[in-house]
Write a structure and sequence with these properties.
The structure holds 2 protein chains of 2 kinds. Chain A has helices spanning 7-45, 49-63, 66-81, 85-115, 117-132, 135-146, 150-174, 178-186, 191-225, 232-243, 246-303. By secondary structure, chain A is mainly alpha-helical. Chain A has one domain: MetI-like fold (Orthogonal Bundle), CATH 1.10.3720.10. In chain A, helix 1 (7-45) packs across helix 6 (135-146). Chain B has helices spanning 19-27, 66-73, 96-105, 122-126, 128-133, 137-150, 166-179, 196-213, 224-230, 248-253, 258-264, 275-278, 292-302, 322-331, 357-362, 382-390, 410-419, 427-446; strands spanning 4-16, 39-51, 55-59, 81-86, 89-90, 107-110, 184-188, 216-221, 233-238, 241-246, 285-287, 306-310, 316-321, 346-347, 367-370, 376-380. Chain B is built from 18 helices and 16 strands. By secondary structure, chain B is an alpha/beta fold. Chain B is elongated, with a radius of gyration of 29 Å. In chain B, 45% of the residues are buried. Chain A binds chain B through residues 177, 179-180, 182-183, 185-190, 193, 197-198, 201-202, 275, 278-279, 282-283, 285-286, 289-290, and chain B through 71, 74, 76, 100-105, 108-109, 111-119, 121, 128-129, 132-133, 155, 157-160, 176, 180, 186.
Chain lengths: 304, 447
């Protein structure tokens, strides 16, 4: 059994070749990601903690009601009193930047896959690969290409978290009532108009579920990214692992859980909530308009 | 040629791996079921013309290919072979942009499950076609509002489709198709998902709208009664082929093959056949100026207890009964008009048999069929009505049992006529008039 394919060596050579050839490109990418992260981090780090808590609580109240708002206040206060506030804000920034980029990449890919069976067939194994490859493995090339710091963390997170965004977007668009899409065609709409006015709005709940999943996966990846110096709560967890510091590990871990729950509840309510508010919004002016049109009719009748 | 709105010639649609191969073999005479390995032939060699302003119904059971056929009429499916022509220009094989233009301006569609945009209001749904056409917001809302009012949805404009019942949702679907103001309307099983009562209401409304707006409508259905009710002409489809195209009367009375015959045997004939289609020539007819003796003679000859009395131009004046006429003759009174009762049950030639039962039940006379000027076209005795429903030919040979039998014996009449022969001298004179009337009545019935 001497037959051994040096697959690992090939990948290594490929990454080496990539580093040599496209280093300037990765440098640009690195500064973009770093810039985005710094910007978001500035937003979370510069105001005093109570401003952040109040703003997030207000968002929670708008999205779901007072229960979640109270939960946010209690949870974030807990993070504060175990002295993980700054780390939590770092992690939050990293998650938001990575998720945003992952969504920006995955939704168009999902649209592409929904529109073309060939694209879908090509994407499917790639997504399987991305999703099941042990997450730690992404860190290695990311580390080489983007050097130690927050950027390889972001990149690895994007790659790992992207798949459900693509899948759920594709699923959502393919699940749109065929007859409604057909109606769009029958009235002479262009494919882009059908996408914009019919497919995307009707697939929105599914797409939002995808966004929610992307954020959740990002959060779980962020801890692993702590190993490559991404800092934040992940850094604390890795440090506590090295020092066998049960207390610190629990505090940092609990902070991650709190962040996860808050982000999940907030984003899960986006797809559903939006519909409900629009409906009540639409109902109120509807009543006004009918009364106006009735008045108009009366006026017309009177003048005639 | 100018009155053709849409023409379909030798259209095939085959799904599968080798569609062209299947078409070639079908043209060479292969059977559809032998080619299932190569592909499924949904539509085979369909050809028909739809005239402007008619309701053309394509009828068939599920799997007969009717839904595929209708989707080729606006290019949602591209035919595998053959051409579809809309007002003179072919739509098969044209660029996507040109096809979209045809769909915007010439042909719109109503769907079985309504296919409304659930996130838009009724008014915005109705205005969708106009929006795609690029009509400015204010104008398209106004035009959509007019149509929404027209289909009976005033006051519901700002509701979401999910707040409406099925019938109302389909009205929105209809409004959307009408608002885009195309000449041709495709309706794919448009009323099949609705309750029977609502369905009937929508069918009637569609006929009204069609009369008012003069649209060309191509209607797909699996419901024969619906097809018969709506269709000016009907195409019956089976296994991808069109087996017969004809008017409802033709399909019903002259089915092209056993399949169609079997299909139509369950149809509600009373809602398809018209008075003009089943009426008989009125036999017992006298001229109002002819006098009682002529009337009596006519009734004796036709063995009837009564006769229709007509004036100038066969205008129906009323009926006379043998007993009354007999009295008049015995009294020597020459004025027939004095005993005319003007209560005959009358119907129009276009009325369906279903509307004839009541007049036929209430009157012991045959129901008179009169045109809009009041002229007598023919008569429908109860027997004829029953025979028409049972699909039994009534006009066979000598034995007409179509008038109610005489209440006064023939001998009595003959004797009375003989006894009173000297009193008036109009007997011989009126004979030609009577014969003439019968001729006209026969002609009328064939029109």
């Amino acid at each position: 059994m001497d037959i051994r394919i040096p697959l690992g060596t090939w990948v290594e050579d490929f990454v080496d070749w990539l580093t040599g050839w496209a280093q300037p490109f990765f440098d640009v990418l690195r500064s973009i990601f770093l810039g985005a992260y710094d910007l978001v981090n500035l937003v979370f780090q510069s105001p005093p903690f109570w401003v952040i808590i109040l703003v997030v609580a207000a968002l929670a109240f708008l999205a779901k009601g007072w229960k979640l708002a109270v939960g946010v206040i209690l949870g974030f206060t807990l993070i504060l009193v175990v002295n993980q506030w700054e780390n939590a804000m770092d992690t939050l920034s990293l998650v938001l930047v990575a998720s945003l980029i992952a969504v920006i990449i995955s939704v168009p890919l999902g649209i592409l896959a929904a529109g073309s069976d060939t694209a879908s067939r090509i994407l499917k194994p790639i997504l399987d690969f991305l999703q099941t490859m042990p997450a730690l493995v992404y860190l290695i090339p990311a580390l080489i290409l983007f050097r130690v710091g927050v950027v390889p963390g972001i990149v690895a997170t994007i790659v790992f978290a992207m798949a459900p965004g693509v899948r759920l977007t594709e699923l959502g668009i393919r699940g749109v009532d065929k007859e409604v899409v057909e109606a769009g065609h029958a009235f002479g709409s262009s494919p882009f108009r059908i996408l914009r006015q019919i497919q995307l709005p009707l697939a929105l709940p599914s797409i939002m579920a995808g966004v929610n999943q992307v954020i959740m996966l990002s959060l779980s990846m962020v801890v692993i990214a702590g190993m490559v110096g991404a800092g934040g709560l992940g850094g604390e967890v890795v440090a506590s692992l090295n020092r066998l510091d049960i207390g610190l590990g629990f505090e940092a871990g609990l902070s991650v859980v709190i962040l996860a729950i808050v982000l999940d509840r907030l984003t899960a309510s986006l797809g559903v909530r939006r519909k409900r508010t629009r409906k009540t919004d639409a109902a109120a002016p509807a009543a006004d308009e009918t009364s106006v049109s009735q008045k108009d009719e009366q006026l017309v009748a009177a003048s005639a | 040629m100018t009155d053709t709105a849409l023409e379909v010639s030798n259209v095939y649609k085959v799904f599968g791996k080798k569609p062209r191969d299947v078409v070639k073999r079908l043209k060479a005479g292969a059977a559809r079921n032998d080619l299932t390995a190569l592909g499924t032939a949904a539509v085979i060699d369909a050809s028909f013309e739809v005239k402007k302003g008619e309701i053309f119904v394509v009828m068939g059971l599920s799997g007969s290919g009717k839904s595929t056929l209708i989707r080729m009429l606006n290019g949602l499916w591209e035919p595998t072979a053959g051409t579809v022509t809309i007002s003179g220009s072919a739509i098969s094989g044209i660029p996507a942009k040109a096809l979209r233009d045809v769909r915007r301006k010439k042909i719109s569609m109503v769907f079985q499950h309504f296919a409304l945009l659930p996130h838009r209001t009724v008014l915005d749904n109705a205005a969708y076609g106009l929006e795609v056409q690029g009509v400015p917001l204010a104008e398209r809302r106004e035009r959509a509002q007019n149509i929404v009012n027209r289909v009976g949805l005033s006051g519901w404009e700002e509701k979401m489709p999910s707040e409406l019942s099925g019938g109302m949702q389909q009205r929105v679907g209809l409004a959307r198709a009408l608002a885009s103001d195309t000449d041709i309307l495709l309706m794919d099983e448009a009323f099949s998902a609705l309750d029977p009562l609502i369905r009937r209401e929508m069918q009637e409304q569609l006929v009204d709208l069609q009369h008012e707006l003069g649209k060309t409508i191509i209607f797909i259905t699996h419901d024969l009664n619906e097809a018969m009710f709506l269709g000016d002409r009907i195409a019956v489809m089976r296994d991808g082929r069109i087996v017969q195209v004809g008017t409802p009367d033709e399909i019903l009375t002259d089915p092209a093959n056993d399949y169609v015959a079997q299909f139509v045997q369950d149809v509600d004939r009373a809602r398809v056949l018209t008075a003009a289609g089943v009426m008989e020539p009125a036999r017992s007819v006298v001229s109002g100026s002819a006098g009682p003796r002529a009337a009596l003679r006519t009734m004796r000859d036709t063995q009837a207890s009564s006769a229709f009395v007509v004036g100038n131009g066969r205008k129906l004046l009323g009926v006379v009964h043998d007993v009354d006429v007999l009295k008049q003759v015995k009294a020597g009174n020459p004025d027939l008009m004095a005993v005319v009762r003007n209560d005959p049950a009358t119907v129009g030639p276009e009325q369906y048999l279903v509307d004839l039962f009541e007049p036929a039940a209430e009157s012991h006379l045959p129901v008179a069929v009169v045109d809009d000027k009041g002229r007598l076209l023919g008569a429908i005795p109860r027997v004829t009505l029953l025979a028409a429903l049972a699909n039994v030919p009534t006009t066979t040979g000598e034995n007409h049992i179509i008038e109610s039998t005489a209440t006064v014996a023939v001998e009595v009449i003959t004797q009375t006529l003989r006894e009173t022969a000297g009193l008036t001298d109009e007997v011989e004179m009126t004979r030609p008039a009577y014969a003439d009337d019968v001729e006209t009545a026969k002609e009328g019935s064939f029109n």
